[in-house]
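Troubleshooting log. The previous structure file for this entry was overwritten by mistake, so regenerating from the original sequence record. Sequence copied from the archived sheet and checked twice against the printout by T.R.
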Amino acid sequence: MRKYILLILALSLSWCAPAQQKIGPGYIIGFYNLENLFDTYHDEGKNDYEYLPDGSNNWTEAKYEKKLHNMATVIRAMADDNGRFHTILGVSEIENRHVLEDLVSQPEIAAANFQIVHYDGPDRRGVDVALLYRPDQFKVLESRSIPFTFDSEIKFEYTPEEQAQFRTRDILMVRGMIEDEMYAFFVCHLPSRLGSKGNDLRSRGGEIIYQTSMELMRQYPGIKIAAMGDMNDNPDDDSMAIYLHGRETLEEVGPEDFYSPFLSMLKAGFGSLAYRGEWNIYDLILVNEALAKGTSGKYKLQPLVKQRKKVFYGRIFQKDFMTQQEGQYKGTPFRTFSNGAFVNGYSDHYPTYILIGKK
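Regenerated output below.
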């Protein structure tokens, strides 16, 4: 018991909010896992029964409305901190387009006029990814939902029969313009770590993003790319470091690499979620060389956080109201359910974001 108490105490003290410098001009690009944003209706073919009024979570309209309000409150709090709403906000663990329409119409964030890019995916539980964007700042040219395939030289644990039955979230790609510059945004929720498995599957997810990115870069020279999502991996895991070619420093980044700004933050002790007694950063945003370094007079990544004389190019957004203030999970993200009970929290993940500007 004493060992368990010391573990929880260490977890609550192992990460603290960084010093936030005044944010400069530019566009904010972020990601937020909304932790099971389900409506109260059954979607045919989806295993959403626990999120029905008579389901195990007793998911009523009142709880759904509280969940929408809480998600909108976090998005608004980021806007208040930054002096503007996100230009791009990738989201995961959403059931369908309907919940997103309800979310963007919440009074806390309605002024952003967020528009939605979403496709119904094959996930058996019915959770998808999507992109919210401000149409006054980002013009969509194309979008597509990229399925998960096993067409790879990676050696998979699944047999061919198991591969044929496997279902997970598609990867969303949205290409468009910010001012006169072309961008592509990937939003993903890579396969889970359930049972401490899936390393090969997440590696394949990173490979799919990388291969598609290289195709876009050949087709549209100079395109700026950001890959974001709940990767279910840290930035130093194989899926991100090897298969997505994520590099820790700007100096390491070449034309066929991605810069991984949250890698140095992980090593410095930051976290976006806590699991089994330690902090992780699964909520990642990686950018290609064109966006990481830019060219004179063009948009590129800007520093967001200074701590202990170090500069970091990402931010993990954390406020006291988003954090459990008591009990065994004190100091960790304040989630919607705890030990099976609805506690009216926010998400078990903190959102992350980057800033691009012309400095």
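The two ends are 52 Å apart (CA to CA). Archived copy saved in two places this time.
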